Amino acid sequence: MAPAVFVALIIFSVVSCGDCRKPGGAISKEQEYHSELEKRLQTLNKPAVKTIIYKETGDVINCVRINEQSAFDHPALKNHKIQLHPTFSKLDDVSAASSRSNTSTKLLKLRGTREACPDGTVPIRRTTKEDLIRYDALSKEFLGSKAQGGPEKKANLRLDNKGKIYGSSVSVALYSLNIADDQESSADVTVENGPVGQVDQLTIGWRVSKSLNGDKRTTLFGYWHGFVNNSGCYNTLCPGFVQVDQEILINYAFTDPLSVYGSPSQQTTTPLTLEQAADSGNWWLIAGDDRIKIGYWPKEILPNLADGAVAVTWGGTVSPGPNGDYPPMGNGHLPDGLYKDTCYFSRVKYANFDRRYTDPVEADTTVHVGASNICYDLKIVAPDEKLIVESFAFMFGGPGGRCN
């Protein structure tokens, strides 16, 4: 059994104990933790108007009234007005790039792939005590390792010093990954702003993580971190993200067909956009070739991002298990110049200072690979006419292993 899972099971067994008091009747730390978990579950699992079980994944979904979701338990959102129809200035450039493409790659459409919640309600994945215990163990391990310099390794492309950045749009290849239970691997887009040591950050993408999701499916995710009160979390594991769409939720599990290594005719990508609405300042998650507005992070919880970002990064992120072995990134293969053989980002664009979408200029970007290039690598490449049209693109990934 993996060490992290074993520890989590021990924690769960202890906090489930019905008689965990210290001698003299004092409440133990285990009981305090158990009580805290129950309170968090009450906050996160609001009363459901309807419950849906996804046949494709087994997830239990609560259809919660949109104005009663746990996002509004955040102190900064007590008087928040829900936004349903954001304004995205000059966004047509992004959708046009998709429609012009004559491509053999399958651009994933999400609408119609899940049962929708009734009008006035939104889908929220039901959180269990086991979910919180795994997440707490993950957070504790992450924070402890960050203090020692961090075990995360990245292969990414960074753009900054170009003035304000109001969003990014990409298409990213979707792959399943064979990783250990205590490892994590993602393909992601991150925007950030704030002085050193006080950075607010938003990340979207797909992630394979049993610690986060309870299984090893390739799953859409969002993560936010605010400098104020050191707050933030993944998906809806804390108040913050406002779910708006009635069908597609933030931690949507992608199902087959995903991309197949070595097959040019079996490449599946999903368009993803992280965009700040011009009229509200809220940061929206938009996914699928049908551009579904899933929901948003209100500007109130990320004050340093209230007026745009100053940097955006694209690429892969991995975390090892306790034994120090790093998981595969991307599709587990190093970039070889062939799109059929490696994971890739295509149609990479960012919204510049006047909110026009534009391709990055390679000379303005910085490539960062935080490990030996036998573990991971990233290469900017010319567009492939059969797969990508009018696009800035790069390949990334690798097998992982002992990468220190």
From TrEMBL:
- Signal peptide boundaries: 1-17
Q: Which Gene3D superfamilies does this one have?
A: Outer-capsid protein sigma 3, large lobe
Q: Which UniProt keywords apply?
A: Signal
Kindly give the Pfam families that the UniProt entry links to this protein.
Neprosin, Neprosin_AP
Q: Where is the Neprosin PEP catalytic domain?
A: 145-404
Q: What is this protein called?
A: Neprosin PEP catalytic domain-containing protein
